[in-house]
Design goal:
Blueprint lengths: L5 E11 L10 H20 L6 H6 L7 E12 L4 E5 L6 H8 L7 E6 L3 E4 L12 H11 L4 H15 L14 H14 L4 E4 L8 H16 L3 E5 L3 H7 L2 E6 L2 E7 H11 L22 E7 L9 E3 L3 E10 L3 E11 L5 E6 L8 E3 L2 E10 L5 E11 L3 E15 L28
Parallel strand pairs: 3-7, 3-8, 5-6, 6-7, 11-18
Antiparallel strand pairs: 1-2, 1-4, 8-9, 10-12, 12-16, 13-14, 13-15, 13-17, 17-18
Helix pairs in contact: 4-5, 5-6, 6-7
Length: about 425
């Protein structure tokens, strides 16, 4: 077994989020404070990133003015691994990459990196605004420890990928954010670092460039280099990453295969009470209000509640409460996977179904559908509509729907597709 290329041991980062100022009580104190402020501010700035043992211990108190961005993070990364790091805003993802990039010092713990590191964190990081695009390419290559001949060999590829040849000799301070990201990604991906760290900056580019970047990241991974990718675009993370790290409040909640981590992350998103949620306690809407109330599966062969087997005809029962009689109603149904990708969308009005009548009070609507999907957690999105009144309610059903596979495939996990349906082969073989 090869030695890890990245080792993170008990890594923690403590930030100061504010300081309490003592209010001036008299005019004399206010005047004295004016003269003492410069020195006091200097001392405060000097100590901003320094913490004593008592301050670190105090940071665990509820009313502390400090916060742990990361707390006791430990993991190893093998050479050639492509790891996706996901989590809510404020989970510590960007802080982790900044520490790995040596931009930020940790409060405690240790990071060991065995290879050249190239990072693409925030727009503008690593570029000198007064230098041209051409000069910044050579500057970044030099920082990575590359010789001029090595940079020369990659120069044309970088320019072609970034598509900014016309502005190559323009100072980058005059670049748009999109141009900045194009050049920054091209430099980071083409200068052959052993470790590539990428934050959410790809969201700045247009969709075509994002596809181009994801393709290049796949090539970098296949070349045996190590990639750590932070993004809220779960579909993109799933596409290029095989291993995942799920951060929650500065700690590692889960590590494992990307599919497993994404499912756990998606399941954690249902903490907000919604219609049909077992955690909600009471009905989402009172009787007589217009809107969905709950859902259940009534023809499932699965043992677990809110679950059905792939390729079964799953029959749903939706409860809908209405304040009045509606004679031209129709429903919309959509299904999203754990990465937030739309799997299917349909409307009863688009499938030769007659409009139906919703009565005042509680209504029970049955819907039968076959879902030949691979095993996983899916989000149901329902809407109740009227041709004369428009949309009356749209509801993301909670708990989520769990699909359980009943088709055993021999393919490795990375070849598992979106559907779970056997393919009927008709082969004809001839021999001369």
């Amino acid at each position: 077994m090869s030695n890890p290329i990245i080792q993170v041991e008990n890594l923690s980062k403590l930030y100061r989020i504010g300081s309490r100022e003592k209010a001036n009580r008299t005019f004399r104190e206010a005047v004295a404070d004016t003269f003492s402020a410069p020195m006091r501010n200097f001392n405060r700035l000097r100590k901003l990133n320094k913490f004593t043992a008592s301050q670190i211990n105090q940071s665990n108190q509820p009313d502390s003015d400090t916060i742990w961005a990361l707390k006791d993070i430990s993991f190893d990364v093998e050479p050639g691994e492509v790891i996706g790091i996901i989590g809510r805003n404020g989970a510590g993802k960007s802080t982790l990459l900044k520490i790995l990039s040596r931009i930020t010092e940790p409060t405690s713990g240790e990071v060991k990196l065995y290879g050249r590191v190239s990072s693409l964190l925030e727009v503008g990081t690593g570029f000198h605004p007064e230098l041209t695009g051409r000069e910044n390419i050579y500057l970044n290559g030099t920082i990575l420890g590359m010789r001029k001949t090595e940079i020369d060999r990659k120069f044309d590829e970088i320019v072609a990928f970034s598509e900014i040849e016309k502005f190559l000799d323009t100072p980058v301070k005059r670049y748009s954010s999109g141009m900045y990201v194009r050049l920054a990604f091209a430099v980071a991906a083409h200068l052959e670092p052993e470790i590539l760290l990428i934050d959410e900056v790809l969201a700045v580019g247009d969709s075509e460039f994002q596809k181009k970047c994801l393709g290049k990241m796949g090539e970098v991974a296949k070349a045996g280099r190590t990639v750590l990718f932070v993004s809220h675009n779960l579909a993109a993370v799933k596409r290029i990453c095989r291993t995942g790290i799920y951060l929650e409040s500065g700690r590692i909640a889960l590590t494992g295969t990307m599919d497993k981590v994404l499912l756990d992350y998606q399941s954690s998103q249902k903490s907000t009470p919604s219609p049909g949620s077992e955690s909600a306690g009471a009905p989402y809407r009172k009787p007589g209000e217009t809107g969905f109330v709950s859902w259940q599966l009534i023809s499932s062969t699965a043992e677990k509640k809110h679950s059905c087997h792939s390729r079964d005809h799953c029959e749903f029962l939706f409860t809908f409460s209405s304040r009045s009689k509606i004679t031209d109603a129709f429903i919309g149904f959509a299904l999203w996977d754990a990465t937030g990708q739309l799997i299917l969308a349909a409307s009863s009005a688009d499938n030769s179904q007659d409009d139906f009548t919703v009565m005042e009070g509680m209504n029970y609507i049955k819907m039968k559908v076959q879902l030949p999907l691979k095993a996983g957690i899916y989000t149901i999105d329902m809407s109740m509509n009227s041709h004369s009144m428009g949309q009356m309610d749209r509801w993301t059903a909670v708990p989520h729907l769990t699909i359980m596979s009943n088709f055993e495939t021999q393919l490795p996990e990375k070849w598992h597709g979106m559907v779970d349906e056997p393919v009927l082969f008709q082969l004809h073989y001839e021999q001369e």
